[in-house]
Design brief:
By secondary structure, the protein is of the alpha+beta class. The strands form 4 sheets. Strands 1-2-3-6-5-4 form a 6-stranded antiparallel barrel. It is built from 8 helices and 20 strands. It starts with 33 loop residues before the first helix and ends with a strand. Strand 16 and strand 17 form a beta hairpin. Among the domains are: 69 residues, Thrombin, subunit H (Beta Barrel); 108 residues, Thrombin, subunit H (Beta Barrel), CATH 2.40.10; 92 residues, Pdz3 Domain (Roll).
Amino acid sequence: MREKNYNPRFSREEEPWDTDSWQTGSTEPPKDKGGIMALMLILIIFLCGIITVLGILNVKLFNQLQVKEEVSTSIRFTPEETAPETEPLLQSQETEPTAQTTLPCDEEDISLCIQESPTSPANVPEEQGIPLQEIYQKNIPSVVSITSQGRNGNSTGTGVVLSEKGYIVTNAHVVEDAQSVSIQLTDERIFQASLIGADEISDLAVLFIEAEDLVPAEFGDSAQLRVGDTVTAIGDPLGVEFRGSFTDGIISAINRDVAIDGRTMSLIQTNAALNSGNSGGPLINSYGQVIGINTMKIGAFTDSAGVEGLGFAIPSATVKDVVDQLIDQGYVSGRPTLGITGETLSTFYQHYYRLPAGLYITAVENGSHAANVGIEPGDILLAVDNARIITMDDLNAVLYSHAVGDAVVATIYRGGQQASVELILTENKG
């Protein structure tokens, strides 16, 4: 019999493997339960999502049922009426639903309700005046659109029919330096116009077109105006795109002296909206009469200050005096002139040709005193009565302070030399 071998280092009590019983475990590694936990978490999230969706659908269904209940109860019955029974109601559904369209508007009705609108009342600007609507209808056939073609492009303005014979009044600056002028009537007819005469001092001009059935405007007396009177204006602000625009305001001042290009004009001041393109259009009183011709030439200095509600018109009394002379003789009597026309000498020509600053003379009127003393095109006008002359406006400013027959001293430059000559002012006949 084979004996057991014991390790001499241990006693029986200390022998770890020599015990009465043995406890053994599984020899496989422990299982990972993380996948099961993730699957259960996904399942819980999915169930929560289903519950949430069902809750939202339940709330929407409840709201729809509540709205239907409110609509069904919005129809009221008068004490004489009784609610229809179920059977007649079912039968009425087969017919056209005309009763619903005739129901009156109700404050609790959720649908859009449009009431019948009455005709707008007449807008009477002043006692015993005529409504603004009638003022416009009365004057719009007499207002025309003006387009001027010049060397530097086109410009637009407004005009007023003077007579059935084809005469039209506008501002002189609207047709200044125009090579051709076209007129468009309110009935869309277009005519080529000829210039009868223009007066720069009053800023008025008369045109003529070969047209029939023109509607002349009714002119009133501007001397009867008072500050505070209601006025209206018709014109083409900013061009023909907005032609026939109608604005209103009051008379802000009468006989307002305004200095323009060296001359003083006595004008009507108004706060009626006027813009570039209204030039030459009518200023109308509360009776539908034209009491002024709007002029926007002075808009340059008002716009530079950003001023609003500051417009000016030429009084009808001035318009009559100037227009009658332009139609009768083509010019306004008593306007002084030197008989020369010129343009500003550019800085480039001054440096390139070594010339002094002044007014380069482009034309000399035959028979004028300037032509008689030998002034020629190409000469440069430096001064008149010691006033420096650079532009035609500078020259006009000096002339407007004189009368026909007055003598002035002009300083002329020619060929590197200056000379002073006395000139007699003659009448400007256009």
